[in-house]
């Protein structure tokens, strides 16, 4: 008896001696060997992973380049660690299932398919590592590297699928590819929408364009809500009025839409809104105005510092202050803009570590826009709207304190232009 037979029947004789039937002994022998092999493979997988992880970490620390860091980030060593255990499992299969040739063939095909998938994952991880590395090179940052990787992965998937077919069926790889090429025209004609949806779903998944739970706005299809389902042909969006909008999957890559995930993932939600100030209410501030505005607590220190600073500048430049336009001066609109910015900086609901400013935009026929640009800490819709309302309730009420007026269209025509037709 050769060594293979001795290993494959290692427990068989013991079971026969215990009085078990020959058939049951074969199954029990295969089961026990299988459990032993799985335990050994599991231990080997853990050991190889630990060794490769520690080796990769050591190389990463001692290396001056960041390529090895990107390999670890994209889990290349972890993927490679599975190769040896899988090879051991394939090698042990003939010993475990020596008496079950059909079952051995089935498990052999399954393990080979797992090997193909593992190879694809390793290739994908390596390609992502190359992509991340190329993006660190200034001359390659604006190149469509992602597109090249996607095309390569599509061909890799197609080849893998046909190779898997050749493993499962008697059809060879060459015959499968030849048959597919001959039938491709008919397949494209009959299953055009399905193929478009399939390709689109792959691209959506690879590019991580949309996930279930994302809030998207797709004006073309009237969709504004949360994605509840993504399948081969359609994407279902539950709008905020609880209606459902169905969008073709390929529309996600052929048309433009807005995904609000970046906002929900960020630390804050943007506030961007303007007040329109009447231009004829803007003026230079007199000394009396400055003293009066110093009573407003948020800008007292600012006015004191600016008053001293402007006095030094005007004295240095020997400005004739008998005419107010001469020299450096404060304006009520500039002071109000500073007040708005200080108020926002002191508001507890505003994120202080993100961009925060109050800016003046270009004049419009409706007046001078003063825009608030900041981010709220709370991103929940109703709380977000409450924060905006709270800010602008205060600003709207504060405008008259700075001798300013808001622009608004007249509610009715001028009565002086009416013609009395009652006489």
Automatic annotation (TrEMBL):
Annotated Gene Ontology MF terms? mechanosensitive monoatomic ion channel activity
**This protein's record includes keyword Membrane:** yes
Q: Please report the record's description of how this protein sits within the membrane.
A: Multi-pass membrane protein
Return the InterPro entries for the record: LSM_dom_sf, MscS_beta-dom_sf, MscS_channel_2nd, YbdG
Q: Which GO terms describe its cellular component?
A: plasma membrane
Q: Which UniProt keywords apply?
A: Cell inner membrane, Cell membrane, Membrane, Stress response, Transmembrane, Transmembrane helix
Looking at the keywords, is Membrane present? yes
Location comes to: Cell inner membrane
Set out the biological process GO terms recorded for this chain's protein.
cellular response to osmotic stress
Instruction: Indicate the transmembrane segments per the record.
Output: 27-48, 80-97, 103-127, 148-168, 180-202
Question: One Pfam family from the UniProt entry?
Answer: MS_channel_2nd
Domain (Mechanosensitive ion channel MscS) spans: 193-261
What is the protein's given name?
Mechanosensing system component YbdG
């Amino acid at each position: 008896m050769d060594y293979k037979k001795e290993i494959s029947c290692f427990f068989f004789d013991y079971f026969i001696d215990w009085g078990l039937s020959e058939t049951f002994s074969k199954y029990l022998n295969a089961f026990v060997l299988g459990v032993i092999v799985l335990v050994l493979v599991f231990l080997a997988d853990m050991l190889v992973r630990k060794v490769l992880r520690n080796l990769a970490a050591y190389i990463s620390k001692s290396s001056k380049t960041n390529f090895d860091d990107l390999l670890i980030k994209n889990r290349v060593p972890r993927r490679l660690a599975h190769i040896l255990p899988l090879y051991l499992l394939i090698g042990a299969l003939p010993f475990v299932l020596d008496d079950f040739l059909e079952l051995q063939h089935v498990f052999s095909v399954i393990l080979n398919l797992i090997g193909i998938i593992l190879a694809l994952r390793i290739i994908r991880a390596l390609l992502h590592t190359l992509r991340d590395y190329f993006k660190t090179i200034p001359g390659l940052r604006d190149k469509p590297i992602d597109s090249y990787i996607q095309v390569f992965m599509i061909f890799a998937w197609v080849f893998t699928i046909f190779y898997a077919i050749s493993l499962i069926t008697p059809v060879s790889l060459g015959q499968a590819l030849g048959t597919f090429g001959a039938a491709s025209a008919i397949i494209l004609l009959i299953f055009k929408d399905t193929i478009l949806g399939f390709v689109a779903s792959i691209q959506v998944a690879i590019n991580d364009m949309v996930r279930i739970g994302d809030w998207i706005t797709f004006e073309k299809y009237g969709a504004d809500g949360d994605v509840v389902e993504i399948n081969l042909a359609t994407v279902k969006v539950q709008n905020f009025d609880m209606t459902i909008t169905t969008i073709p999957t390929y529309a996600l890559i052929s048309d433009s839409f807005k995904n609000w995930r970046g906002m929900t993932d960020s630390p804050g939600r943007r506030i961007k809104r303007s007040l329109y100030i009447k231009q004829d209410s803007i003026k230079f501030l007199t000394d009396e105005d400055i003293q009066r505005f110093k009573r407003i607590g948020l800008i007292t220190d600012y006015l004191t510092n600016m008053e001293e600073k402007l006095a030094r500048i005007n004295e240095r430049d020997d400005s004739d202050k008998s005419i107010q336009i001469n020299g450096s001066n404060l304006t009520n609109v500039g002071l109000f803009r500073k007040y708005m910015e200080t108020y926002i900086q002191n508001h507890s609901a505003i994120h202080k570590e993100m961009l925060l400013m109050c800016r003046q935009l270009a004049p419009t026929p409706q007046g001078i826009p003063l825009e608030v640009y900041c981010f709220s800490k709370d991103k929940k819709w109703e709380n977000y709207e409450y924060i905006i309302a709270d800010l602008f309730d205060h600003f709207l009420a504060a405008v008259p304190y700075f001798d300013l007026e808001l622009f608004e269209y007249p509610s009715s025509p001028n009565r002086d232009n009416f013609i009395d037709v009652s006489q």
